[in-house]
Amino acid sequence: MISTKGRYALALMIDIAEQDTKNYIALKDIAKRQGISKKYLEAIVKKLVDAGLLEGISGKNGGYRLTKKPNKYNIYEILKLTEISLSTVSCVGEKATACERKNTCKTCSTWAELNDIIKKYLQKKKLSEFI
Amino acid sequence: MISTKGRYALALMIDIAEQDTKNYIALKDIAKRQGISKKYLEAIVKKLVDAGLLEGISGKNGGYRLTKKPNKYNIYEILKLTEISLSTVSCVGEKATACERKNTCKTCSTWAELNDIIKKYLQKKKLSEFI
DNA sequence: CCAATTACCTATTGACTTAGTAGGTAATTA
DNA sequence: TAATTACCTACTAAGTCAATAGGTAATTGG
């Protein structure tokens, strides 16, 4: 359900949050500390930047920085970027594809309920809790 | 997280539970009612039989039958048969692979907690609730 | 100004999973 | 004994995951 990519994204965010938030943190250093391939992290960090969760600058002393305080991030917004879907099944959730059985389906409400429980749990969990 | 296979397994169990439980229900009829390929269902129903959730007999008037009453089934035991893992991440849950970062990992407890919430929800939900 | 540093970009690979199909054999009963 | 049904093995095409490779563009310290 939550892939390596998602866990790396969270690990990366925690790593940056733990450092002095005023400076930009180079991906090279994060990769070294976390024991994750820098090349692989590049693809992940891009999603975080595109979504506005991080800002990055190039060049010497460049790197990445949080755009808000750690207690303002919930881990749902982080994880959903790297996962195709955080929903339990395809017929519920954000990218729900139309379910042809919807009218006769006896299980949809169960999936929706479970989905909601998971989402609420992840949304309640703040980045600051991991520091 | 929960694949078509899992949803089909549940749909199949509900279908059988809805019929007269004394008779054996032919897969052909279930497939027709549910609008699912019979061939595909064969692979799914095998897991249910192997796990003892259903019993099947061959020949004319053969088919499948529940081995206990619908309120004695929870949907966790049904879904886990078709899914590689119902865990949120690979480092927690039933088939947990060793996590090398375990001692330094700040996120494991979160995954474990979420995992537990999902498991408890599914275990509480009985097959009889879908009839 | 230039060379090192760093983010940022595109493409590719191999392994695995998923969803589904195909073509059978074995058992049971009307 | 013929129809019916479960049961079995193998295969395929598409998609995802994890990771690598080889660059270009931007920024800054010396």
Percent of residues of chain A in beta strands? 5-15%
Tally of separate domains of chain A: 1
Sequence of strands across the biggest β-sheet of chain A: 1-2
Q: What is the fold-level CATH name, i.e. the topology of chain A? A: Arc Repressor Mutant, subunit A
Taking the alpha carbons of the first and last residues of chain A, their distance comes to 24 Å
Label the overall shape of chain A: elongated
Give the name of the CATH architecture of chain A.
Orthogonal Bundle
Oligomer state equals homodimer
- Radius of gyration of chain A in whole Å, from Cα? 17 Å
The largest sheet of chain A, given as strand count, sense and whether it forms a barrel, is: 2 strands, antiparallel
Q: Could you report the average pLDDT of chain A, rounded to the nearest whole number?
A: 89
Structure description:
Two copies of one chain form a homodimer. With 131 residues, chain A is mainly alpha-helical. The first copy, chain A, has one domain (4-130): Winged helix-like DNA-binding domain superfamily/Winged helix DNA-binding domain (Arc Repressor Mutant, subunit A, Orthogonal Bundle), CATH 1.10.10.10. In chain A, 47% of the residues lie in helices and 6% in strands. Chain A is built from five helices and two strands; from the N terminus they run αααββαα. Chain A has a two-stranded antiparallel sheet with strand order 1-2. In chain A, β1 and β2 form a beta hairpin. Chain A is elongated, with a radius of gyration of 17 Å. The A-B interface holds A 1-2, 7, 10-11, 14, 35, 75, 85, 87-89, 101, 106-107, 110-111, 113-114, 117-118, 121-122, 125, 130 and B 1-2, 7, 10-11, 14, 35, 75, 85, 87-89, 101, 106-107, 110-111, 113-114, 117-118, 121-122, 125, 130. The structure holds a DNA duplex (30 and 30 nucleotides).
